[in-house]
Amino acid sequence: MNRTELPPASSAQPSPERLTPMFVQWKEAKRQHPGTILFFRMGDFYELFFEDAQTAAPILELALTARGKGTATEAPMCGVPHFAGEGYIAKLVERGFRVAICEQVEDPKKTKGMVRREVVRVVSPGVFTDAERMHPSESITLAAVSGRGPFGVCFADLSTGALSLARARDARDLSDVLARHETRELLVAQSRAADAAAWVTSGGRPILITPLADDCFHPLHAVDRVLEMLGARSLGSFGCPEDHPALPATAAALAHLRDTQKTAPKHLDRLTVENPSESLLLDAGTRRNLEVVANMRDGSRQHTLLESLDATVTALGARALRNWLLEPLATPVAINARLDAVDALRRDPERRRSMREALGEVRDIERLLSRAALGSATPRDVSGLLGSLRALPGVKHALDGAGSVRTDELSAGLDTLDDLAIDLSAALFDEPGVQPGDGRVIRDGFDAALDESRDLARGGKRVLAEIEARERDRSGIATLKIKYNKVFGYYLEVSKSQLDKVPSDYERRQTVVGGERFVTPELRELETRILSAEEQMSERELELFGMLLCSITTRASRLRGTAAAVAEADVLACFAETAARENYCRPDVDEADRIELIEARHPVIERLLPAGAFVPNPCRLDESARIVIVTGPNMGGKSTYLRQVALLTLMAQAGSFVPARAAKIGIVDRIFCRVGASDNLAGGESTFMVEMTETANILHNATPKSLVILDEIGRGTATWDGMAIAWAVVEHLHEDSRLAPKALFATHYHELTELEGTLSRVANAHIAVREHGHDIVLLHRIEPGPSDRSYGIHVARLAGLPDRVVARAREILARLVSQHTPASLASHPPAPLQLALFGDSGPSSAEQSALQRLREIDPNALTPREALSLVFELSDTLREH
After folding, report:
1. What are the Cα distances from residue 16, in Å, to 26, 100, 116, 284, 691?
2. Per-residue confidence band for 768, with pLDDT thresholds at 50, 70 and 90
3. How far apart are CA 604 and CA 303, in angstroms?
4. Phi/psi of residue 212, nearest 5 degrees
């Protein structure tokens, strides 16, 4: 999605000389933050004016009103209560808008004239940090791109402090890298903004494109700027070369975060450099087709691999699991270290239970740290961090001695931050208030100055109660009460029926419907003392809370290290829990060039069926059977079979046990999965064009270490065209030594099964079927050899097609079979079949003309409107003759 633009205002803004002082402030804030919707604080509300109000009102379901209605300065407006502002801001951000929050930065009670206002934060899809509206497993990724190919890409997650650098060979690779990181917002140089739309893949979550000045991406001094913002002396300490193409993008991203958040993001103080050779790569199409983290139906996580495996108990672990599935490992040593840890925890259910109980008390440390660094953390956030720190010793104890090298390393490296826990325990109430400054955040006895102000405020209220009791006795007015409001402060309220008893030293303040309000010199003096003490108490508590946040931020590196250890421990325990519950086996993962599965099951579909209902199947891909062509009827399970092989390979390399009786998996560098039918109409691509584009990507990028899953290639065009394409694709995968991947190829073109006899590393397999007359039973079992037919008419009957249609289909099939006996495609390419459309007498002249017209056109060159017009034209011609 391109940058969201605000529509022009339906009513022009007034000329500068007619602007009120308040609108002068508003206009200056808009000038400094173009392209944003401005939330302008006025008292207890955020107000939106002019085009901002006209844009936001229908989205937020607000009534659009006007300020100064009927005057020369009339301004369309709408507003929301400031305490509910985050929810409304989130709605706009989810729609792709940027929102600038303009606050009152002076106390109206202490200011004469116009209160000063400033934009304190800009919120956009890439810098969203609202904890209540972020899914714990998802990252909020801001990306920046520099270079003109090869490209450098910086990824930053302000909500967690993650900062990483990547490379992309070309525009297509860049598009895939952005999709793999689930980018929400893309920063580009203004001069490259027009190109950026081509880098944003279609489908999935839209990406907001934000152009910045070209100077932000200038490579000169980029290293110095990055080091300054990271507070580091050398990039070598991060394993980053000084000529990395992403450094200009990193400098631009960090500067953008500082400018939009109005503070330096100090928790982004280290970066990681991605090494593609260490990960199993999944392109956007493969992730979508395998439904790794989002299903193809509605994009949710329901019925995905992520949902099936997710037994994590922390937000940290949920995010790590998602990342592990999207970027599995590609080195046997690292994979087996994970598998050893999973095995150890699987064998020790009591230790696993203890660890998961302790982990369950740990909050999202990364995001708590982020809010502390940005100054937006609440007392409840800090209390949650304290609770997490108190749970860490239990996690460390469960890891210690678990029986694997990796769990021992995690235990040794898990910093329990006892010093921070002691500081927070000493400072915070056990159940602190919602907002700092309300007097219920910092514990009694922590700070002498705060205690003094708090005692005076509390003591003053006790004195008020004493005065109230004494004045009742002195005046004889039993209903006399001391009350308070912001206008008159403290006062004595007397009902009308008791006014004759009012003492002579009472000073009348106000007459109300039910009586009179009075003050006394004693009450005025006490009011001054109480209000002064409460103000001092609030200011001191705010100051002390800010110091606590600074104390947390100074330990950012230690907290992030602990968060990473907790996340990994949670995922390892999750894998162990799932393996024990679902009876998964440990895969043998090594460098051998083969995939061998015995009684393998689909990890998602198996859980949707009754226990024991899923039919397990074997798979063997090695040098003798490099490509397996799978045939059989629709609904027989070909797609399920293909996907489960890919998913088990992915799971194994992520470090998980797999649903099979046994599994031997050689390291795969990439998985390519081309299945199903989808289009990209917005991009001008038909279903067949998308199919061919994805297939071309495979043929250009697969390697001998890749796993390729192809389902029904060539089905989107004419029968013989499609068969020819499918045939050529199989030959190319087999014969080109630069590719030669392990591949599963499902097809309805039974002619392709002849390749087993002509290509040495091609084997056939089929879905078993049992026939009973005109009925069939789908056994969902893979067996060697080709299928004799597709059973399409049988499946159509099972689907409920009318008997008359099924019977006619059998007649047509018999006629086709009698007219054409397929010969070997290897030596005799098939001639096209065609039923007689015009009867035995042949076509008329009009019909011949229509046929000639059809032969001359190129269907791929027609737009949908041109194709429809042609159909109407030919139809009219044939009706007239």
Report:
1. 12, 22, 19, 50, 57
2. confident
3. 6
4. -125, 165
| Residue 356: alpha-carbon gap to chain centroid | 25
* Strands ordered across the beta sheet of 742-746: 281-282, 670-674, 707-711, 742-746, 627-631, 762-772, 775-784
The span from the CA of 765 to the CA of 138, in Å, is 39
pLDDT category at 630 given cuts 50, 70, 90 is: very high
Is 61 in contact with 102 (CB distance < 8 Å)?
no
Taking 90 as the threshold, does the pLDDT of residue 564 lie above it? yes
Looking at per-residue confidence, does 72 or 466 come out higher? 466
**Distance (Å, whole) CA 20 – CA 26:** 10
Q: How confident is the model at residue 201 (pLDDT cuts 50, 70, 90)?
A: low
Q: Phi and psi at residue 205, in whole multiples of 5°?
A: -70, 135
Report yes or no: 306 and 293 within 8 Å, Cβ to Cβ: yes
Tell me how far CA of residue 509 lies from CA of 460, 465, 481, 526, in angstroms.
Answer: 22, 20, 15, 17
**Sheet-wide strand order for 36-42:** 65-67, 75-81, 45-49, 36-42, 98-104, 117-123
- For position 860, what pLDDT does the model report? 63
Give one word for 291, left, alpha or beta, with left for phi > 0 and alpha for psi -120 to 50: left
pLDDT at 843 over 70: no
Residues 618, 623, 627, 632: is their CA dihedral positive or negative? negative
534 touches 554 (CB < 8 A): no
Other CB atoms within 10 Å distance of the CB of residue 761: 19
Residue 843 phi, psi dihedral angles, 5° rounding: -75, 150
Q: Is residue 63 within 8 Å of residue 77, measured between CB atoms?
A: no
Paired sense of beta strands 515-519 and 507-512, if any? antiparallel
Residue 365 confidence class, pLDDT cut points 50, 70, 90: very high
Which amino acid is residue 37, in one-letter code? I
C-alpha 250/C-alpha 265 separation (Å) is 13
State how beta strands 588-590 and 507-512 pair: unpaired
* pLDDT band, very low/low/confident/very high, at 696 (cuts 50, 70, 90): confident
SS3 of 761, please?
A: coil
Query: Residues, the chain, total?
Result: 881
Structure-block tokens of residue 397: 């104890």
SS3 102: strand
* pLDDT tens figures, 90-142: 999 989 899 999 999 887 777 777 889 999 999 999 988 776 667 777 888 99
Q: What is the secondary structure of 661-707 as a DSSP string?
A: SEEEEE--SEEEEE-S---BGGGTB-HHHHHHHHHHHHHHH--TT-E
- In angstroms, what is the C-alpha Rg of the chain? 35
Alpha helices in 291-430 (DSSP H): 305-309, 315-326, 332-346, 349-359, 365-374, 379-399, 405-413, 418-427
The number of beta carbons lying within 10 Å of the beta carbon of residue 720 is 17
Read off the DSSP letter of residue 279. Answer: B
Q: Which two tokens stand for residue 263?
A: 């503070």
First to last CA, the chain: 50
User: Angle between the 315-326 and 365-374 helix axes, to the nearest 10 degrees?
Assistant: 110
- Spatial distance between the Cα atoms of 47 and 53, rounded to a whole number of angstroms: 8
Per-residue pLDDT at 818: 65
Crossing angle of the two packed helices 365-374 and 556-582, in degrees rounded to 10? 160
Q: What is the Cα–Cα distance from 99 to 128, expressed in whole angstroms? A: 10
| pLDDT of 793 | 64
Q: How far apart are CA 366 and CA 138, in angstroms?
A: 13
Q: What is the dihedral of CA 641, 642, 645, 649, to 10 degrees?
A: -150
pLDDT digits (tens, 9 = 90+) for 793-808: 666 666 677 777 767 7
Instruction: Supply the pLDDT for residue 861.
Output: 66
